[in-house]
Amino acid sequence: MTRILADLPEDDIRWLDARAAEQGKSRAAVLREAVQAYRTQAEQQGIERYFGIWAGQERGS
Question: Residue 2 and residue 28: Cα distance in Å, rounded?
């Protein structure tokens, strides 16, 4: 696993720490889960963007 350094506003840090405390997880664990959820959502939106792109097209031989 690779470490990163990210600058976040204090309000976001407080919010993140509160979520981590509520879930009994570390700040890093919550961030990893958030990135994974964002990535999954972005990939799904990419798939949906192209869903049906060939609708109405004639099939060639």
Answer: 12
**Burial class (CB within 10 angstroms; exposed 0-12, middle 13-18, buried 19+) of 20:** middle
26: which residues sit within 8 A by CB, 6+ positions away? 20
User: Which residue, chain included where needed, has tokens 């509160």?
Assistant: 18
Q: Which of 4, 7, 9, 26 is nearest to 17 (CA)?
A: 26
The radius of gyration of the chain from alpha carbons, rounded to an integer in Å, stands at 19
Residue 3 clears pLDDT 80, i.e. is over it: yes
Alpha carbons 24 and 18: distance in angstroms, whole number? 10
Q: What would the pLDDT profile of 9-52 be if each residue is shown by its tens digit?
A: 999 999 999 999 999 999 999 999 999 999 988 877 766 666 66
